[in-house]
Design a protein that fits this description.
Strand order of the largest sheet: 1-2
Shape: globular
Radius of gyration: 20 Å
Number of helices: 13
Strand content: under 5%
Length: 345
């Protein structure tokens, strides 16, 4: 395999071209493409003829949004995750309340938490000007997730496209399928398994917490009443615990933010896993991946990714492609919305 600048042994079973972007240059890693078939009828270059500038339009808007606010990269990545875990990657998350829709935005995982919808609106508006009624909102979420990772210093992947948008949403699906921040390891494994994602995918995708922030209400229990005895989680590093309680009081301050990775909160790297080794996991669901007496396999993967950033970045890209192919609507099923917030009349 030949690449510009350096050689990396290919590990991705999907053989995806990887893109490493920096502010100075673009490095293209050329892996032979051999996607498993049928891969839900999604293909890499779905819009080459119908909207050839689609990915460039998306990237342009995402770049501006992330330059304005670095946290937006994590927010957009999270939208794709929260969409795919509820009735598949169909942009159901983007629908607002209406006479026929009960929006997923009001669910426990999303209420006062999910954000970036205005950026998606802007992307859709630009795409409708260039190619009306062509690019789905579900594909927008898949592309923005990849671009957000790359703009944060991570490794890119070739996004499979051709998803269509749902005409329904599932509030109950959002409440039941998306893992909560206080989830146990077994709950995490179970909820990922429902989506045909294994423990490797679980640990790799949890690495998305190397960027972004979390609200105090999502981790307060660990600080003040982890086991119902009024005591903090004993697995927390003491200095890290002191740092957290200064910004997350026992009562009030629900929306106070703390970085998921306090070492490099806006850089997509492997410090999330290094932090877990030192007791610096913010959420209970993070710490569970490396909790003694819990999952031997997840602990081994955390150690592996902490030691080998390149391996983590490659596996993350592979797992993102796998997650992006959860039950997409294709062909004539679903629709192409003109506005991501509403179904076609």
């Amino acid at each position: 395999m030949r690449i510009m600048a350096k050689t990396i042994a290919p590990r991705l079973s999907l053989g995806m071209p990887l893109l490493l972007l920096s502010s100075l240059q673009v490095l293209v890693l050329s892996f032979p493409v051999s996607y498993p078939q049928p891969f839900n009828n999604l293909i890499p270059h779905f819009y080459d003829h119908s909207c050839p500038m689609a990915e460039e339009i998306v990237k342009s808007v995402v770049e501006k949004a992330v330059m304005k606010e670095a946290r937006m990269a994590a927010s957009l990545l999270r939208l794709h995750f929260h969409d795919c875990f509820v009735q598949g990657c169909d942009a159901s998350l983007l629908l607002d309340n209406s006479s026929t829709i009960v929006s997923e935005k009001g669910s426990n995982p999303n209420n006062n938490s999910a954000r970036g919808f205005d950026v998606v609106d802007q992307i859709k508006s630009e795409l409708e000007k260039a190619c009306p009624k062509t690019v789905s909102c579900a594909d927008i979420l898949a592309i923005t997730a990849r671009d957000s990772v790359v703009l944060s210093g991570g490794v890119g992947w070739e996004v499979l496209l051709g998803r269509r948008d749902s005409r329904s949403a599932s509030l109950s699906g959002s409440n039941n399928n998306i893992p909560a921040p206080n989830s146990t390891l077994q709950t995490l494994i179970t909820k990922f398994k429902r989506q045909d994602l294994d423990e490797v995918d679980l640990v790799a995708l949890s690495g998305s917490h190397t960027i972004g922030q979390s609200r105090c209400t999502s981790f307060r229990q660990r600080l003040y009443n982890q086991s119902g005895n009024g005591q903090p989680d004993s697995s927390l590093d003491k200095s890290y615990y002191s740092r957290l309680i200064s910004g997350c009081p026992k009562s009030g301050g629900d929306n106070n933010l703390s970085p998921l990775d306090f070492v490099s909160p806006t850089k997509f790297d492997n410090y999330y896993f290094k932090n877990l080794l030192s007791g610096y996991g913010l959420l209970n669901s993070d710490e569970e991946l490396f909790a003694k007496g819990q999952g031997k396999k997840t602990m081994e993967l955390v150690k592996l990714y902490a030691e080998n950033e390149e391996l983590f970045l490659e596996q993350f890209a592979e797992s993102m492609v796998k997650m992006g192919n959860i039950s997409p609507l294709t062909g004539t099923v679903g629709e192409i919305r003109a506005n991501c917030r509403t179904v076609l009349s």
